[in-house]
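Fill in residues.
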């Protein structure tokens, strides 16, 4: 049994062959002193949200995960398992996603470092579907002034999204902010007036103008602004680097700094910004990785 010093255990797993493993932290340990890690490989794709389930040895003090998106805590579910909610960025090219775990034994002993990467083979999935749209030309071919404004908006948004609130405000599953038809799914490649654009970074939910927009989960309003392309936009910080964004609103009904409960109305569906009709553009980020909100909802449904 190691009581001091840094213990390193290394292993690699390729999802195509195996998606669950149990590793003894020390040779000769009982089964209750192994760590079991499992996940659903089909979720491991760009924009995917992967709940990686860790069944730790008994008596462990704390577990942290480390990925390219930084170090982060795990969520403990009712069954006693620990969940690392991993967001695979939409731009992630793979082929492997590196994830390490730091296991803190009780007392002052140094942490175990499971450091040689839990490697998730990233499936690149099917080629994205295309969607052609027609818009007023000035909304597609931006003037220099408008382009500068859009770039400023983007920089401002990324600054907001780069903050890491140590507190986790949410405890229940994420929900769809508006009940309606999903008119454009995540990752769809759009062609505006014949000009190919980047893949769609969220989901569009079509709903009549004025439909209330609910907070997808408990969180703090960290931005309420009027952007050129996104229109009237609210950003919620749910803590632990998890954010949701609500764009093209008709009106914003909350103010910055306000703590919203899950399901609380934050604004109304509208047509502000670059749109072809009233809808909510809903997007989500996990520690800087832009992820599919439908997967965020699914991944948190049984936590
Ligand atoms: Zn959209």
């Amino acid at each position: 049994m190691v009581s001091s010093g840094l213990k390193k255990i290394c292993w690699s797993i390729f999802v195509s062959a195996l998606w669950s493993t149990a590793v003894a932290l020390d040779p000769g340990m009982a089964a209750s002193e192994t760590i079991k890690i499992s996940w659903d490989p089909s979720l491991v794709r760009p924009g995917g949200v992967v709940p990686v389930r860790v069944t730790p040895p008994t008596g462990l003090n704390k577990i942290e995960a480390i990925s390219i998106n930084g170090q982060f805590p795990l969520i403990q579910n009712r069954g006693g398992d620990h969940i690392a909610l991993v967001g695979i960025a939409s731009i992630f090219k793979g082929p492997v996603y590196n994830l390490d775990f730091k296991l803190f034994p009780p007392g002052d002993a140094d942490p175990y470092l499971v450091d040689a990467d839990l490697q998730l083979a990233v499936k690149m999935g099917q080629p994205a579907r295309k969607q052609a749209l027609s818009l007023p030309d000035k909304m597609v071919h931006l003037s220099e002034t408008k382009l500068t404004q859009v770039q400023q908006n983007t920089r401002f948004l990324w600054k907001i999204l780069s903050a890491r609130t140590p507190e986790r405000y949410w405890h229940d599953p994420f929900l769809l902010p508006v009940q309606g038809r999903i008119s454009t799914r995540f990752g769809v490649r759009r062609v505006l007036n014949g000009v190919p654009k980047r893949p769609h970074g969220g989901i569009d939910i079509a709903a009549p103008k004025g439909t209330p927009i609910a907070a997808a989960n408990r969180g703090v309003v960290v931005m309420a602004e009027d952007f050129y392309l996104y229109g009237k936009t609210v950003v919620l910080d749910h803590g632990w680097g998890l954010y949701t964004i609500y764009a093209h609103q008709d009106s914003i009904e909350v103010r910055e700094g306000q703590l919203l409960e899950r399901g609380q109305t934050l604004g109304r569906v509208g047509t502000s910004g670059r749109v072809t009709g009233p809808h909510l553009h809903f997007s989500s980020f996990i520690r800087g990785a832009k992820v599919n909100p439908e997967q965020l909802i699914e991944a948190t449904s049984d936590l």
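Residues 184, 200, 202, 204, 281 surround zinc ion (CB under 6 Å).
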